[in-house]
Amino acid sequence: MKFRITLLLISICGILYGQTEEQMVPSELKFRNVVNEPITLKKGFLRVGGVLNYTLINQIFTEDGERKIFDSNIWSNGWFNNIIVEYGVSDKLQVDVQIPYYNETISGSNYAEFGGLNLGTSTTEISHKGLGDISVFLEYQIIPERNMGDGLTLTMITELPTGRKDPENYEESPDGSVYYERPTGAGEFTLSPELKFRKVFYPFSFEGFVGIEFPFGGEKITTPGSSENNSFKGSTVFKVSSNFNFMINDFIAIKNGLLFLNLNGETVNGMPSEEFIGGWGFTYFPFVSFQFRKLRIEEAVTIPLMGKSNGADISFFLMVRYLF
Amino acid sequence: MKRFMLNYMIFVLTMMIFQNTHGQDGIQNLRNIDWPLTNFKGQISIEGDLRQYIANNRRNDQGDTEALRDEGSTYSATISGINVRYGIMDNIELMLGFDHQNEISRKLTMYIFSFNQPSQYISTLEQTKGFGDLDLRISYKWPKETESYDIKLSVGGSLPMAKAGEKEPLHEAFYDSEFDLEEINLHYIYGSGRGVLQLLAGGEFKYRLSKNAFHAWYYSRIPNGAATVETWTSVKNGYDFEHESIEVERQFPMVTQFGVESEFQISPFFSILGGYSNFSTSGGWFEQGDSFIEEPSTSLGSLNLGYFLIVSTNIWLRQNFGIPIHGNNTYSPLQLEASFTYNLFK
What is the DSSP pairing of strand A279-292 with strand B120-131? Predict the structure, then answer.
């Protein structure tokens, strides 16, 4: 009798679990969303897409950690775009390439007066347009995927200095107006190992990652208008993030992420940079993902919660990706 | 932070529980365009929305576009709001709502050089921040049974719960040794309230075809007279400011909103929206002592494109993107709007 009851309970459990997760044929793997998709792309799968990002320049977290609105009339007009190509080399290894492109103008203006005499208005215009630093991601399942999505991956991200590293075309008018083209690249290689963990409790999933970005330094012009090359090294960046995701239905999933970044500051000619002495940021990012068969449209907003010497503005993202 | 995360988790869990326990009684098959303009009896909807406005231009009094960059000013606004709608009858609905506003505008910065005094760098920031007044509105829908068309008439009031007028300024001044000048940051801050009861009145019309619907609306917000509000004068004394408040009579302008929208049902739960909306203000003035200043009327017309997604009977998501096409005496911002509705249906 005990055996029969046990068998019955096991059967019921089997039925209940069987209803929550369907067995998929290989072609259906392409329809899976951010919650239950394979932790790396399956062999031969190619996903291509783009990211459109807009960030205001309104607020910063000061060195004291206080959220402060910029006093000056600095303004940013433009977008940041990123083309993403992802490819499954094998069932355990994925390669991604991200190609950023900036299309932004930052401006400000000042009225000047001397002894009551109007000296006119000068403007500062900083063009920030062009190809940025291309990143190559190698993502490998060090604990192979189990139970439709659980797993641990090691990602190695290499950032190549393909963007313009120096400020260029500096022009200063007699009225004090300034124009120059801001660098679109960091001017140095970086290498970032990241460990990513995922556990699926269908229809929920939990993700966490920890990573560190090592800069290798280089030489560049650090002051606009100057021709002096300085040796420099960017910040070492420590990253920790976790996401709690859930599926609302088969084609909509919501992600909730928290990201902590710590930057140790830049050095110029071996000395700590006056421009950036280091800081940290703690950000919340809600994320909606729509999966229309092989097409994925995602929207996200990053909301800085706390920080020090870091941006405090909301940032908007729209991502469109298609799995071939 | 702990409390925020805890509250957030409770919200998500509550949402999931409600999703699984409510909204299963026959109305789940309604397509987007079929939903009536008012809630059915006993139905409660909670709608949260977020609107982001980012302007690079303004429209002058002739309606011409002027780049804010040329005048050295900037404008952005983030407005979030909550509306709760309750169906008293199948065709009578009560709505309660309020907004939170954070509008930031900067003016041209100035360098003042002089012979006898230290040079000054002056920046000016104007911010409208805080919760707005509490809106209470009752709506009547005709015909009672939803057919090919709905007509909704609404009337109500906006109760003066929030701070109106200017708050004490947050100016600061300090010596900047790097540039050997005195830096003065003028930070004016205003409340989002209107100080007096406002009449809310308007209506909506919706006409449905097999896969399309046309929707038109008109709403007005009329202040019941002028309000006595504070404005502040500031005197700089060294690196400190002394502020003094003065009472002024302020007639906030009447606000009118109207628009038309076409909705196309792509699938039973997803529709796309396109239309035109207009926001205008008129009749505002303020009086201080002998001076009487009339505020110019403003108007802004925008083309809108968006979608409406019924995730489940309980959860609706709308997003809208607006591009300004004409206007007078106002900023001309791009508009990003997202609203999330949670229906606590029986």
Answer: unpaired
Structure tokens at A62: 């000061």
pLDDT number for residue A290: 86
- Beta strands A295-308 and A279-292: pairing type? antiparallel
Can you name the residues that pair with B284 across neighbouring β-strands? Answer: none
d(CA A29, CA A203): 16
Q: Which two tokens stand for residue A237?
A: 């960046």
Report whether B201 contacts B227 (CB < 8 A): no
Strand partners, B52: B78, B336
Nearest to A110 among B78, B111, B187 (CB): B111
Q: Which residues in chain B have their CB less than 8 angstroms from residue A110's CB? A: 72, 108-111
B107 touches chain A (CB under 8 A): yes
User: Nearest C-alpha of chain A: how many angstroms from B109?
Assistant: 5
Q: Are strands A229-233 and A252-263 parallel, antiparallel or unpaired?
A: unpaired
Pairing state between β B181-190 and B120-131: parallel
Please tell me whether the interface predicted TM-score (ipTM) of this complex is above 0.95. Answer: no
Question: Range with the lowest mean pLDDT among A86-90, B9-13, B104-108, B246-250?
Answer: B9-13
Average pLDDT over residues B83-87: 96
List the structure tokens of A174.
């007699």
Instruction: Work out the burial of residue B33: count CB atoms within 10 Å of its CB; fewer than 13 is exposed, 13-18 middle, 19 or more buried.
Output: buried
Give the integer Cα–Cα distance in Å for B204 and B196: 26
Q: B37: which residues sit within 8 A by CB, 6+ positions away?
A: B139, B141, B150, B152, B204, B206
Classify B170 as helix, strand or coil: coil
Which strands form A229-233's sheet, in the order they lie side by side? Answer: A218-221, A229-233, A267-268, A271-272
Using left for φ > 0, alpha for ψ between -120 and 50, and beta otherwise, residue A271 falls in beta
Q: Is the pLDDT reported for residue B218 higher than 60?
A: yes
Which residues of chain B make contact with A121, given a CB cutoff of 8 A? 72, 108
Subunit contact B123:A288, Cβ cutoff 8 A: no
| Closest CA–CA distance from residue B78 to any residue of chain A (Å) | 10
Section B252-276 average pLDDT: 94
What residues of A are in contact with residue B313 (Cβ under 8 Å)?
none
DSSP structure class, residue A182: P
Other beta carbons within 10 Å of B69: 19
